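Hi V.,

You were right to ask for the full record rather than a summary. Here it is.
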Amino acid sequence: MTPDLPATARLFFALWPDARVRGALLERQRHWQWPRRARPTPAAKLHATLHFLGDVSRERIPDLLALHTGLPPGPYGALRLDTATLWRGGIAVLESAAPPAGLAELQSRLGTLLRREGIGTESAARFRPHVTLARAAQGARPPVAVEPIDWLADEVVLVESRRGSPDGYLVLGPGGPGA
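Predicted structure:
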């Protein structure tokens, strides 16, 4: 373990968008009317969470990366992000009105593997695939119509959220910018 890193890492499993999807998400984000206090999600942090793990010992990261071998290979279906919604607490999201069955099965299977490893998740009981476009967005107005984004869900990544760090998120693997 690197001495300048804390003993635990704030981790989550996610779908990580490619450049095309990321660009489309940013375009949809620009169509919202944001109040001044809103904090739009920076481009480098746009993703769809499958399971949020919270703080986990860094020693467990290799075990978590190995969970990929227990997952069925992608693609998991075409995730159509077609609904702009403001959730309770001022969370602005782009979500899927009808998520692909393969993605729900993937999320469920990953949850089972995490529980077998003794790792609890903070994911909601009902999986609602979405991308958070902004926080603190109470009073934001979504666009009247949303041009759908079709995202082929084909790769699951383990990501570290580094609070207070300019790095923001670090994709630990497999693949991805930080791997």
